Amino acid sequence: MGEPLRLLLILLGAGSLFLAALSLARRKMGGTLCVVWGLCAFLLILAGCALPLPLLSGHELAQAVWGSLILLAAAYYASVGLSEQLRRTREMAMQVALLRMENQRPRSGPEGEPQRDALVIIPAYNEEGNIGRLLAGLRQSGTETFADILVIDDGSQDRTRQEAEAEGCLCLSGIYNQGYGAALQTGYKYALREGYSYVIQLDADGQHDVCNVAKLYQALREPDGGQTPDIVLGSRFLPGGQSFRLPILRVIGIRLFRVVIRGTTKRQITDPTTGLQGLNERALRAYAQYDFFDGACPDSNIIVQMLLAGYRIREIPAVMHARESGKSMHRGLEPAAYVLRMAFSLSAVFIRRKLLRRE
Fold first, then answer.
1. To which H or E segment does residue 278 belong?
2. Which is nearest to 146 in space by CA: 197, 222, 111?
3. Is 312 left (phi over 0), alpha (psi -120 to 50) or beta?
């Protein structure tokens, strides 16, 4: 009973998945809305496979088909419109945060020339228990001899900004919590505006040892096979690296992303979810573009995108520690949403580069 209706639900779910991935590849729909589409699509497919369904007459089935198509089209255009509005809001929020910094330019030589060519950017959200210790460690390690330090306070509700300023650090504050990727992109835009040649990003939770910063900076400037790398990744899994005990689901995810990257780019990346990275000016300009960088989950999807686009990526051993205080952004239902978002984003990158042939 209900076989035509069952088939309709399954096809509608599969079509929704494909439409969402294609829209993300064409940058018509945002990643968060694609996750919502994905959840709805899975529910439709599950309903078609598992639920008892009534048998419809030919006329009723035709009405169901047309009604489904109309609803799908309406949902699509509403999602595209909402994505565009969110894009404009996010870009405006970034520009407002950058305008606030106009009178806080930290670096200039005797003749107005920049003293340092590197900027360390640290996105932070509710990290008052870690940020002060991290900034003190950077100062003690001599980071300020070759790099300026910028904390991007992503709308924290605690004393993250005050703790950063107490350490004498430049702090750029967002007007609301936009997310990890958007905070990073605000830092990239600032770095370009100020004329930095290199950016080194690390997390505010203290998991990335401060000794890694100088190593990333050196690796960005050293030729590798005759050319300097565009991106240097800090890997906890290379010989000489150091890690802490990871949750089993995180380990499975890392191994899965290794396989995906290997299969799509023919490159072996040992730590595809690392947030410890160094960028040269070429990669920095690409990341600063709104539509080029994932504003929520810039992980394996961005690595695949950059490799397929011909950017040079190198890994070096890195030292990482367990978080000492605060809450990780990978908690609760976040890991499940993260996996679904990565599935969409990786599919979209492949469709964009290989099928649509778009940059």
1. strand 277-280
2. 197
3. beta
CA-closest candidate to residue 277, choices 268, 287, 292, 267: 287
Residue 122's beta-bridge partner residues? 151
Which residue is listed with tokens 């609301």? 176
Amino acid at 203: D
pLDDT 10s digit of each residue in the chain, 359 long?
458 888 889 999 999 999 999 999 888 998 889 889 988 999 999 988 887 878 778 888 889 889 999 999 999 999 999 999 988 998 899 999 898 887 665 554 444 445 689 999 999 999 999 999 999 999 999 999 999 999 999 999 999 999 999 988 889 988 888 889 899 999 999 999 999 999 999 999 989 999 999 999 999 999 977 899 999 999 999 999 988 888 888 888 889 999 999 999 999 999 999 999 999 999 999 999 866 687 777 889 999 999 999 999 999 999 998 876 656 555 555 667 777 888 888 888 888 887 787 66
**Pair 56, 7: CB distance under 8 Å:** no
Q: Are 119 and 150 in contact (CB under 8 A)?
A: yes
Looking at the whole model, is its pTM more than 0.90? no
Q: Comparing C-alpha atoms, which of 219, 222, 217 is closest to residue 202?
A: 217
Residue type, 126: N
CA distance 111 to 263: 51
Q: CA of 165: how far to CAs of 66, 68, 109, 138, in Å?
A: 59, 55, 22, 14
